[in-house]
Amino acid sequence: MLETLDPKTARIIPLTEATEPGFGVYVHWPFCAAKCPYCDFNSHVRHQQVDQARFVAAFKAEMAAARALSGPRTVTSIFLGGGTPSLMEPATVDAVLSQIGQLWHMPDGIEITMEANPSSVEATRFRGYRAAGVNRVSLGVQALNNRDLKWLGRLHDVEDALKAIRLAREIFPRMSFDLIYARPGQTVEAWADELRQAVDLAVDHLSLYQLTIEEGTPFFGLHKAGKITVPDDDMSAELYEATQAITAEIGMPAYEVSNHAAPGAESRHNLTYWRYGDYAGIGPGAHGRLTSGGEKFATATERHPETWLAKVETEGCGFVDCESLAREEQADELLLMGLRLREGVDLARWQALSGRDLDPAREDFLIEQGFIERLGNSRLRCTPKGMLVLDAVVADLAC
Ligand SMILES: C[S@@+](CC[C@H](N)C(=O)[O-])C[C@H]1O[C@@H](n2cnc3c(N)ncnc32)[C@H](O)[C@@H]1O
Ligand code: SF4
């Protein structure tokens, strides 16, 4: 049984079965007005105008190629991510969403999310996105003080962020925003104050990410040179615990490592990833997982925007990879994604893919250490302590 958007509350009615992960479509807009010094996403700055009509034609062609692989499916969510998708014209968004509706079955009221930067928000565009069908926005607020916003290289200030939040709340049935914490020198008290402000501004969903120093970014060089000091493991754990406690206290507990929502307000699209569902990944550098003829394919497209465009224009699609995943690989991915979720992993599904049981000695050890727990006989999940060392837990269970 698939869930729908309740028209009265504009909230998703959650899946009754976590084993029905849905089918999502992700579309990547690879451009930003400026590159943030911490970001290693596939985002690029262009000083000349981007030809959006050309991108629309290419998105359409690549979607048709994904449809040929996926066959007919019912779309349960769409996500326009980036980069900065709020640099797209509303007509571009409209054309992309219309094409999805032409290729797959797209029931009314499915979740359609768009990422938006507070600096590129204005009411007419927001209304245009809403008219095109977007019903959820995710705003990149990142911090609620101007000093940190500047340090993070953001183009907006707190006033812009508050304006964007107000507009989003007014125009879209659902909204969320992102904050980055564990910034240099940030104390637990300062973060708790900022988070409490955020909680007052939020509706029912927040994404709260610990700052990661990504290789190849300007922050990586500065960190290596000792010019940026991030919180150590103990401090990170304290910040994480404060985040869990404050969001749980106000009824928006973590449903995933960094994502917090009131029950029913979870991001349907992201749940599809973490529940290891299928999704089409469209646009430069997008990844997908598509089942066809009983096989699950991992797709990846060319990352560089203009190279991707040229490839689609000459070959009809920008895929550089379309690899059939062995069942054991699928089992590993299911575990990796599912243990991020508070609802955990369906063990029967994992066993069916891996063709084996979990090693009882490893499982007992991790349970004794307080890293994982069983939910009845059928599900396994990480405890909050286990979430802090998730990669190690997955590595231990998967091998
Ligand atoms: C793909 S970004 C796009 C969002 C949008 N362009 C923006 O920046 O407002 C999605 C989110 O990832 C988070 N993020 C990106 N790089 C990060 C990093 N190095 N550490 C922690 N969070 C990061 C930010 O919170 C950001 O809003
Ligand atoms: S605006 Fe978002 S996607 Fe663009 S560089 Fe900054 S964090 Fe990355």
Automatic annotation (TrEMBL):
GO BP: porphyrin-containing compound biosynthetic process
InterPro entries: Aldolase_TIM, Coproporphyrinogen-III_oxidase, Elp3/MiaA/NifB-like_rSAM, HemN_C, HemW-like, rSAM, rSAM_sf
Family: Belongs to the anaerobic coproporphyrinogen-III oxidase family. HemW subfamily.
Source domain of life: Bacteria
Source organism phylogeny: Bacteria, Pseudomonadati, Pseudomonadota, Alphaproteobacteria, Hyphomicrobiales
Pfam families: HemN_C, Radical_SAM
Chaperone found in the keyword field: yes
Subcellular location, principal: cytoplasm
Protein name according to UniProt: Heme chaperone HemW
SMART domains per UniProt: Elp3
Function per UniProt: Probably acts as a heme chaperone, transferring heme to an unknown acceptor. Binds one molecule of heme per monomer, possibly covalently. Binds 1 [4Fe-4S] cluster. The cluster is coordinated with 3 cysteines and an exchangeable S-adenosyl-L-methionine.
Stretches assigned to coiled coil: none
Compartments reported by the entry: Cytoplasm
PANTHER family noted in UniProt: COPROPORPHYRINIGEN III OXIDASE (PTHR13932), RADICAL S-ADENOSYL METHIONINE DOMAIN-CONTAINING PROTEIN 1, MITOCHONDRIAL (PTHR13932:SF5)
Organism: Xaviernesmea oryzae
Keyword flag 4Fe-4S: yes
Cofactor(s) required for function per UniProt: [4Fe-4S] cluster
Cellular compartments per GO CC: cytoplasm
GO molecular function, one term: 4 iron, 4 sulfur cluster binding
Domain annotation Radical SAM core: ranges: 17-253
